Automatic annotation (TrEMBL):
SMART domains: CBS (SM00116). Residues 536-588 form the CBS domain. SUPFAM superfamilies: CBS-domain pair, Clc chloride channel. The chain crosses the membrane at residues 36-58, 86-104, 178-202, 214-232, 252-270, 290-311, 323-348, 354-372, 384-410, 416-433. This is CBS domain-containing protein. It is a multi-pass membrane protein. PANTHER family: CHLORIDE CHANNEL PROTEIN CLC-E.
Length: 588
């Protein structure tokens, strides 16, 4: 076969890559910068249309199996006989298992974590056909009762469209990463009608930066996707609830307390998801494709008693927001939902964890509010108001992204009068959760694979200073220390450690290193008269606590020492800093 001519590329049916002439037309249509903005709009449009198509599949499937007239199937599931509640989830598990066997690999894996990894590690590359298949199977599984979120499918298809467009047009890794984040954010925006919160989610969680040059593209994609979904699906908040207001100082204190409690629950949620995944990873590899069937069979068994745990839980959250769920269910369902969600996610049933976390938080908040109502009869706000605060607090606690969490909940409910207690509860929950579980729901998956993602706080806030890395200098000698004592102390030092010579006030005078001492031994007849001041190196330049770690790294570049002394402004010895600690813990 002759070699293709220069610039010609054969289309790849597996990736859906367009023909060479179409790519050349697209590349030459506009300048590079304008073409990128056209792609930003295109990603938003594709994400919005993809959301419309996937939600149509969701509604059709739920109507087919549950006789539901809307996408919320709890009423239809409650009216269904026990055998249907059991068999339909089992059918969903069988579908996931069958697809896994056909494609030769499981569909497991956290979608959002995979997108973050794609942005930071894989230069924005996502396998387009696998993402589409995973999204389609995910939406079917949720419709059949999988206790996961529908947003997983919309997020995957949006991100994959951004990756595919950047790959087809041979964009650089920087623009590819932004397009993937645009697609994922647009998927969330179209799923929940939250353009502002989705844009900030993309910046805070996916890109880890609020840089102005990133804000524009993500906002445009989210706006376009939301316009499409509002035009073709619905133009109202996701949750239509009564008007609540928490303005009394007592209620702000209760919001603070709720934030602390839900922060701990958020850490439990993250650890529960990870624990189930770790346990299921230890099973024999031949069992892996069949685990979705096993997990969904468990869901079916629980559904015989009641279908509240099936699906993404929208109806239960809505009931908690209206204060119509009994206290017993508000206390039992959150942990039960966490258990089945962890099982299904770890077993390989594709779906999102975003919506189940809203279920978890709303019911915990509703239980808190109902208990407060009983403790303070007539003096507390309705439990539905605390259910809303619980949603925002868990979202902030599990994602460690309090800004986007607050705005998402506000856009989902449209209740501005709760914004102050919502902000307070979300921030407190994020702080408590981060203290108990340093990794978020998304980064914990990556941390196990040694994938490091930049934090979403400014560099100058997260950078560790010199003081946090220094070690105490326990071995000091006066300048008059005899030579034989110096040698003994040096030999007792751990590898790479030196001996520091200080005066009576603790000021650094010089450094004695064993290697330097070997080549500069005085005449044997003079050893008895030699002291530390005679063999110390006064040319070693110490470091001070006010230096940045980048400056310290540059200082190490001009010396062969493994450690450098740290002194204050008057040369008082504070300790030492090793090159190894700098490289392991420093961020530059």
């Amino acid at each position: 076969m002759p070699e293709p001519t220069s610039g010609a590329v054969h289309p790849d049916l597996r990736t859906g890559e367009p023909s060479p002439w179409l790519r050349r037309i697209l590349r030459g249509l506009l300048g590079q910068e304008r073409r990128f903005w056209v792609l930003v709009v295109g990603v938003g449009l594709i994400s919005g249309l993809g959301a419309v198509a996937l939600l149509a599949v969701l509604r059709f499937t739920q109507h087919l199996f549950w006789q539901s007239t809307t996408e919320h199937f709890l009423e239809g599931a409650l009216a269904s006989p026990g055998w249907r509640r059991f068999l339909v989830p089992v059918l969903g598990g069988a579908l996931v298992t069958w697809v896994s066997l056909v494609v030769g690999q499981p569909l497991r894996g956290h979608g959002t974590a995979g997108i973050i990894e794609s942005i930071w590690v894989k230069s924005g590359r996502l396998p387009f056909p696998r993402a589409l298949l995973r999204g389609f199977v995910s939406i079917i599984a949720v419709a059949l009762g999988a206790p996961l979120g529908r947003e997983g499918a919309l997020l995957q298809t949006g991100a994959a469209s951004g990756s595919a467009l950047s790959g087809w047009l041979r964009l650089g890794p920087g623009q590819a990463r932004v397009l993937v984040a645009c697609g994922a954010s647009a998927g969330i925006a179209s799923a929940y009608n939250v353009p502002i919160g989705a844009a900030l989610f993309g910046l805070e969680v996916l890109l880890g930066s609020f840089a102005l040059e990133l804000f524009g593209p993500i906002v445009v994609s989210c706006v376009v996707a939301t316009l499409v979904s509002r035009t073709l699906i619905a133009d109202h908040p996701s949750y239509v609830i009564p008007h609540y207001a928490l303005t009394h100082p007592r209620e702000l204190v209760l919001a603070l307390l709720l934030g602390v409690l839900v922060g701990g629950a958020s850490a439990l949620y993250v650890r529960g998801i990870n624990l189930a995944s770790d346990l299921l990873d230890k099973l024999p590899s031949w069992l892996t494709p069949f685990m979705p069937l096993v997990a969904m069979t468990v869901v079916g068994l629980t559904a015989i008693a009641g279908p509240y745990l099936m699906g993404n839980g929208y109806d239960s959250v809505n009931m908690a927001l209206h204060g119509t769920l009994p206290l017993a269910l508000l206390l039992i369902l959150p942990l039960a939902k966490l258990a089945v969600t962890s099982l299904c996610a770890g077993a390989g049933v594709p779906g999102g964890l975003f919506t189940p976390s809203l279920f978890f938080g709303a019911l915990l908040g509703g239980a808190f509010g109902m208990l407060v109502e009983r403790a303070i009869p007539g003096g507390a706000a309705p439990s539905g108001a605390y259910a809303l605060l619980g949603m925002g607090a868990v979202l902030a606690g599990t994602t460690h992204a309090s800004v986007s969490a607050v705005l998402m909940i506000f856009e989902m409910t449209g209740d501005y009068d709760l914004i102050l207690p919502l902000m307070l509860a979300a921030v407190v929950a994020a702080v408590v959760s981060r203290r108990l579980e340093p990794e978020s729901l998304y980064t914990s998956v990556l941390a196990k694979r040694d994938v490091r993602v930049p934090a979403s706080v400014p560099h100058w806030l997260r950078e560790e200073g010199v003081r946090s890395l220094l070690s105490p200098a326990t071995q000091r000698v006066p300048p008059s220390a005899p030579f034989n004592e110096v040698v003994v102390l040096l030999l007792e030092q751990p590898p790479g450690a030196d001996l520091y010579v200080t005066d009576a006030d603790g000021r650094l005078l010089g450094v004695i290193t064993l290697d330097a001492l070997k080549g500069h031994l005085p005449d044997h007849s003079l050893l008895q008269a030699t002291v530390a001041a005679d063999v110390m190196d006064t040319g070693v330049q110490p470091i001070t606590p006010d230096l940045s770690l980048a400056e310290v790294a540059a200082r190490f570049g001009h010396t062969e020492l493994e450690r450098l002394p740290v002194v204050d402004g008057r040369r008082h010895l504070l300790g030492s800093l090793s090159k190894g600690d700098l490289l392991k813990r420093g961020r530059f």
